[in-house]
């Protein structure tokens, strides 16, 4: 469902105003789009929480390694890291494992880091909107760091913009925007009930959406093996 369609009743703005019996004066495009986009962010995080191995909103980013530089910024649209790989020599690639600097007993100066970490077993530590590499690159490598990640959705701004998730669940964004409208005018008769109904519709939509994304990839085959338990341990 696109953001707005002037020729038909189709569109998130149209449907929201239908639910709220509002117009461009009582629910401006700016306020309505802001509400829709806030629920767009929420729905996308719900999908990430539920998705199977079919990655929603997935992206791959690369960046150059700089000699003696430990800190590297994340892509501006990153939401969740899936995997990270690095090559210190431009040829051999290794998966980078997460760690927390508090796990280290020694200091974090460059000399100690060089002594404690090997390029064939690299680690990274998350620091706000960037990451710290262990060990620190000693040479410049073009596109030496690669990150697989789930990205933040691009806000719906053009009237032809469409949410980047399955269409059957697009109406949930309109239910969310309607809920915000009823909450704003809660003093009006009947709006408390309407707000609760909108909230119920949001929850139902999210539940169905998460169930869909949990099993979207039907081609993958799972094998159940036999488990043998030994309950005689510790006995003579």
Gap from first CA to last CA? 69 Å
Spatial strand order of the main sheet: 1-8-3-4
Mean pLDDT: 89
Q: Portion of residues in helices?
A: 25-40%
The low-confidence runs, each spanning 5 or more residues with pLDDT under 50, are 218-225
**Main sheet specs:** 4 strands, antiparallel
Question: Descriptors for this entry?
Answer:
single chain, 236 residues, alpha+beta, 2 domains, four-stranded antiparallel β-sheet, four-stranded mixed β-sheet, 5 helices, 19% strand, elongated
Give a brief outline of the structure.
By secondary structure, the chain is α+β, with helices and mostly antiparallel strands. The protein has helices at 12-20, 29-50, 110-116, 171-184, 191-214; strands spanning 58-65, 71-73, 78-86, 94-95, 97-98, 123-127, 130-134, 141-151.
What would you note in describing this structure?
β3 (78-86) and β4 (94-95) form a beta hairpin. This protein has a 4-stranded antiparallel sheet with strand order 1-8-3-4, with no helix packed on it. A 4-stranded mixed sheet has the order 2-7-6-5, with no helix packed on it. It is built from 5 helices and 8 strands, in the order ααβββββαβββαα. α1 packs across α4 (171-184), α2 (29-50) crosses α4 (171-184) and α2 (29-50) packs parallel to α5. By secondary structure, the protein is an alpha+beta fold. It is 32% helix and 19% strand.
